[in-house]
Design a protein that fits this description.
Helices cover 23% and strands 31% of the residues. With 172 residues, the chain is of the alpha/beta class. The protein has a domain of 117 residues: Rossmann fold (3-Layer(aba) Sandwich), CATH 3.40.50. The strands form 2 sheets. Strands 4-3-2-5-6-7 form a 6-stranded mixed beta sheet, sandwiched between helices. A 3-stranded antiparallel beta sheet has the order 1-9-8. GO terms for molecular function: guanine phosphoribosyltransferase activity; hypoxanthine phosphoribosyltransferase activity; magnesium ion binding; nucleotide binding.
Length: 172
């Protein structure tokens, strides 16, 4: 068993998600919104978020290869599972669990524009700006967190701990 320390409680996460959903509902009111959830980490955040958004929307999922320590910022993004609905001329909300170096999300944003999206906004529940390697405009951010490895609320360590209801720092 790893040593765990709570950083953000279940209650604080729930409150934040409902505030983010209210903002999103207001900002995209007149638009045809497509929520694109980045697997696997954002499945729980996406499920909570979309249920609190009160405008019509569609949901799609995609999975991309994560960058290893040796991966250069010039490396190609590998799509392991692609969205199954068209995004041409759509307003897309890209939903992430955590923005760390920023490489994944900025590549995915470009990818969705290449697929013809009209507008792509970024939404993440957690943000670790200390580790940024590339400038990213995060349009909706839940919590800015310190540079620690975190698990819970969808985030894993070796595929475990995704089911924790709170966000914890894990000491490996
Ligand atoms: P980026 O391209 O921004 O460096 O990578 C973002 C991805 O790295 C996230 O979607 C997530 O899968 C993983 N990641 C970054 N920081 C953490 C962390 O603290 N905990 C976990 N479980 N995954 C992280």
């Amino acid at each position: 068993m790893h040593k765990m320390e709570e950083l953000i409680s279940e209650k604080d996460i729930a409150e934040k998600v409902s505030n983010m959903a209210a903002l999103i509902s207001r900002d995209f009111k007149e638009q045809d919104l497509t929520v694109v959830s980045v697997l696997k980490g954002s499945f729980i955040f996406t499920a909570d978020l979309v249920r609190s958004i009160n405008i019509p929307l569609e949901v799609a999922f995609l999975a991309a290869s994560s960058y290893g320590a040796s991966t250069q910022s010039s490396g190609e993004l590998k799509i392991r599972y692609d969205i199954d609905i068209p995004v041409e001329n759509k307003t897309v909300l890209l939903v992430e669990d955590i923005v760390d170096t920023g490489l994944t999300i900025s590549r995915l944003k470009d990818y969705l524009y290449e697929k013809g999206a009209k507008c792509v906004k970024i939404c993440t529940i957690f943000d670790k700006p200390d580790r940024r390697k590339i400038q990213v405009d995060v349009d909706y951010c839940g919590f800015v967190i310190p540079n620690e490895f975190v698990v819970g609320y969808g985030l894993d360590y070796n595929n475990k701990y995704r089911n924790l209801k709170n966000l914890c720092k894990i000491t490996i």
